[in-house]
Amino acid sequence: MNSFKHNLLYVATVSVLATSYVAPSFAQEEAMETISITGVKDVNSLMPPESSSTFGFDKSLVQTPRAVTEVSADLIQAYGLRSVDDLVRMTPGAMTSSFFGIQGQMDIRGESADNYFRGFRRIANPGAFKTNIRGAKNLEVMRGPVSPLYGTGSVGGQLNYSPKSAKSDATKYIESTTGQIDLTLGSYSQKILAGEVGTPFTIGDKQGGIYVFAEVEDSGSFYHGSEPSNEMLQVAIDLDISDSTTMEMGFQAQTSDSIQVPDWNRVTQDLIDKGTYITGAAPVRNSDNPIGADRLLPQESGFVTPAAPYFINSSFSGVGSFCSAGTEDNSNFVYNGNLLSCPGAPGFIDGYALTNPGTTQIDHKTTFIDDIDFADSTAFTAYLDFTTYLDGDITWKNQFYYDYMDHTKYQSWGFTADYPGAKAAEFRSSFKFDSQGDGYFIQHITGLSIRNEDLDYNHGFYDETFDFRDITVGPTANDRIDWAVEDPYEDATILYDEDNNPIGIEGTVRRNYNEEQVSTVTNLGLFYLADITLDQWSILLGGRYDYYDVESEDQAVSLLGIPFGDGLVHSDTESVLSYNISVSYMMDSGLIPYATYAKSNSLTTNQLGGIVPNSVDNGEYIADSDLIEMGIKYTSDDESIYAALSIYDQEKTDRIGETQALVAVSSKGIEFEARALLNEYFSITTTATHIETTEVSDNALAIINGAEFAKCRMGCSLTKYMVDVLVAIAQFL
């Protein structure tokens, strides 16, 4: 077992915002002068809104017994927030989660967070495209499990995006046409153009409104060779169909062209401290094969042989080695006292060494980028809601949701991904009603949801190599890895012996997808929530029953045609129960202490959110978690101060898709945020976080490359670096 412990202490982040404001008005009467103090106007909507949709109730954020941060559209504009990474400045417990530089989702409480759109979970986006936030009417970041109303998701937390619309609040439309155009010009050729317009309209005697938001970015970057671009169009239409029914419909469409960047390679402490970079060329492995004259084909970057296990793609890599946890019997490498099993090492490992190594100074703008790298995405999200107000103050809501993503990328260090036409669709029907009696008032929400996901996940990452490229020189034919293709055997034939065992390859084989997982998930959910008010006490109860019907198949084969999986479609059905209970007390001073316990379930998935075939038969595709959270919130009488402090302890166990490792994660932390309107000109926000996350794993994945061996060529002890050779060790959470 391997245990990793991370202590993260974040010093408080403080933002001060100057705002323009018209001075308070004064009224004068005939007999005396009366001064009317209107208070400080919240020009940028800094303070949390009066009603929060975190759990689906009409309940203010200060009264919601969970750690939640809300960011309004005005605050997004005032603070210049552009992506999910920028929200870290506003959200305690959150960390940037740029996946090789692409800002797809947040990390919250040590876990990758989910993106939600109007309360519906989107297809996973760890590094497909940048998640824009400028078109949001408001954003909610809840730490910990999602409300039972919204389904199951990451136990770390979620970002819920509500698009701008023509409604000024839940029932009122904007009164006239409004709009604006924003142009952002910045250093490194930054160019972002955004425009929005909203207008009310009538159909017969029925009121409606439409709001359109669009954004286009075509920018350069601080980093040489990185030029991200994306386009987004968002439309929201609201209409009163009858006196009792309203309709909301709309969509968000986005295209993105970007690249993933691993920044520096050949990382040493001298590089970090002094900018001293190890130079040197990769070993010559490229042949005169015309199919891949500018890159390394599989037969050049590795040695394809039946002697190599299928799980390393039937090839001993000549550019790096994937290692897993070893035992006394099979280990052939040691790192920091941990036994590792590295196929091909140490016999192959000296072959990774660089030729003519030396040193030079390097700046931060020079990174591992190739001009043929790309990451292209198309995303489309649509919704249709019907809300009917029935007799007895009952609200019946029927919601339809659809999410689509098509993504493909290639990075010349050896990674290709293809997610063709990933789809998710969900229907949710809910009833909301009240009941009351002597000394109590209860809000109820109950209903059901049906969700279907159809995901095709393809990854090619043999042979990845980071250290081969001298980034001061740029890409060469000896460090650029071939990209994966759908038919790697177009110019190759697998040879078999008389017993039908593969013995080699005739011709030229192309790079294969060594992960091809096709999965479908159908989820039926039943939920009930109650918000009970007893004088100054409040009790929030929620429960959800989920029934899962899953199918998953591993279709990938190695370079010698050996299946990575068993060739079967794995199917299973499971039923799970999630619930939460919270108790809070509203003190006369404005302080509201609370305590929460939540037991939730989430899916163990690959990076696209699909089910891993190996996790189906034993039911390990469902991971449960426990959360204990206590906190205290405060808002002043004049609503010029808001503060929240939370302490939590959360545990989760699941099986990781990339390595099949069983990982137990324990996270404890303290989170604090405060917002204050100091006067008519200045406001302030501050956050502070202390997190301690411990991971215990039965497996780990290491990648061996050649920088340390380059140092050995410069005179250091080979024996010493046989123990301390790993340039990067990746523990998949």
TrEMBL record:
Question: What coarse category fits the chief subcellular location reported for this protein?
Answer: membrane
Q: Which Pfam families does the UniProt record give? A: Plug (PF07715)
Give all residue intervals belonging to the TonB-dependent receptor plug domain.
62-157
Where in or outside the cell it occurs: the entry states: Cell outer membrane
Question: What are the protein's UniProt keywords?
Answer: Cell outer membrane, Ion transport, Iron, Iron transport, Membrane, Receptor, Signal, Transmembrane, Transmembrane beta strand, Transport
InterPro entries, per the entry: Beta-barrel_TonB_sf (IPR036942), Plug_dom (IPR012910), Plug_dom_sf (IPR037066), TonB-dep_rcpt-like (IPR039426)
Q: Does the keyword Ion transport apply?
A: yes
How is this protein situated with respect to the membrane?
A: Multi-pass membrane protein
Q: Does the keyword Transmembrane apply?
A: yes
- What is this protein called in UniProt? TonB-dependent receptor
Signal peptide positions (record): 1-27
Species the sequence originates in: Paraglaciecola aquimarina
